[in-house]
Automatic annotation (TrEMBL):
Protein name: Large secreted protein
Keywords: Signal
Organism: Rhodococcoides kroppenstedtii
Signal peptide: 1-24
Length: 152
């Protein structure tokens, strides 16, 4: 029985090693290095582009949040003109809000999302539920081919 368990663990370890090398392959020849595709422990996730039909509950920027903290967004959607939508996880909109800051360069759009309790809901009893939120933000120029990143 012990030999079977060790054999199973060895097979799982070998499968993990072989699948890791397939994930870091560069199928389109774009020149991405393996480190571009592997998340850095403790770093915010690399957000990905999604169509607008995958948006969640609409949140409007609310700068007056209680106990606000940085919340990485998981996806984004380019919008017409100089706008972008970011998609993140937070609490119910009856109790929780979000705000964001945008820093732009010619190559990057870095967005820092903060979530926290609404000031008006401080004395309210709120359910603990995860909600996918979407917040639309203005940019100085369209996203174009710039990289969209999480801020800290």
């Amino acid at each position: 029985m012990k030999a079977l368990a060790v054999g199973l663990l060895l097979c799982l370890a070998l499968a993990a090693c072989s699948s890791g090398s397939a994930e870091t392959a560069d199928p389109d020849g774009a020149g991405a290095s393996p480190t571009d595709m592997v998340p850095v422990p403790g770093a915010p996730p690399v957000p990905h582009e999604v169509p607008i039909d995958q948006s969640g509950t609409t949140f409007r920027p609310e700068p007056a949040l209680v106990l606000a903290q940085s919340t990485p967004f998981e996806a984004w959607t380019p919008l017409p003109g100089n706008r972008i939508a970011v998609h993140f996880v937070t609490g119910s909109p009856e109790c929780y809000g979000a705000d964001a800051t945008v820093a732009e360069t010619e190559r990057d759009v870095t967005i820092t999302v903060r979530t926290g309790r609404l000031a008006a809901a401080q004395d309210k009893t709120c359910i603990m539920i995860a909600v996918v939120g979407t917040m639309e933000l203005d940019l100085s120029a369209p996203v174009g081919d710039r990289t969209v990143r999480n801020g800290t």
